[in-house]
Amino acid sequence: MTAFSQLNLAVRDMDATLAFYRRLGLRIDAEPGAPHVAVRLANGTLLEFDHVNFVPKWDAGWSGDTGGTTVLGFEVPSREDVDLVYAELTTAGYRGHQPPYDAFWGARYAIVEDPDGNPVGLMSVIDVHRKFWPPPELPRV
Q1: Integer angstrom CA distances of residue 50 from 7, 32, 55, 83, 132
Q2: In order of start, what are the domains of the chain with their CATH numbers?
């Protein structure tokens, strides 16, 4: 039997990437310019960052691309905090991918991109009283 235990991201600028994830509240202990950084999350999952020059050391078939369509999800304490965290990150220069909105599944939701273009979702706790169907078309950013 298998169990999900790790997520590994290839990054172009380790220091910029770690600064982004520290802004999201992760405690990361790493030397500047480290080629590999691992962070054990509260739920036990291992989040690892590898500089693009280091990835070929463990993945001979790596294409050289970073970023993608997999969304890394971060829970925020309240609906209002989704807006606050999104504003803080976009004001700091990170690209807003999806501005905050009330999602059909009952959460407040937004997406920003980390320095390598990985989408990072910011989601409040789901309120079942705010669920609705069908979902509307969202305006393009």
Answers
A1: 11, 13, 6, 30, 40
A2: 1-60 (3.10.180.10), 67-141 (3.10.180.10)
Residue 78 tokens, joined: 């309240």
Q: Could you give the CA distance from residue 20 to residue 31 in angstroms, rounded to a whole number? A: 15
Picking from 45, 57, 73, 74, the residue whose alpha carbon sits closest to that of residue 10 is 57
Q: How far is it, in rounded angstroms, from Cα 75 to Cα 97?
A: 17
Q: Kind of pairing, strands 72-75 and 36-40?
A: unpaired
Encode pLDDT of 89-119 as tens digits. 999 999 998 999 999 999 999 999 999 999 9
What is the C-alpha separation between 21 and 115, in angstroms, rounded?
10
C-alpha closest to that of 92 among 114, 65, 110: 114
Distances in whole angstroms, Cα of residue 52 to Cα of each of 55, 63, 99, 108, 125: 5, 10, 29, 34, 34
The average confidence (pLDDT) of the chain is 92
